[in-house]
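Appendix B. One record, verbatim.
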Amino acid sequence: MVDWRTKASITDIANAINGRIRRHHRDMLRYHWEHMGYLEQTIEELEKQID
């Protein structure tokens, strides 16, 4: 789920969150990530309608 714009490596990210993020945190991050994707798609659709 790492965005392509992220500069840190997957290994660095995994080491940074190891032991700190519990199941609840992972679920919340996933929900936020999915919501952001929904919002980005909605914005794209609105921009097409405006054009």
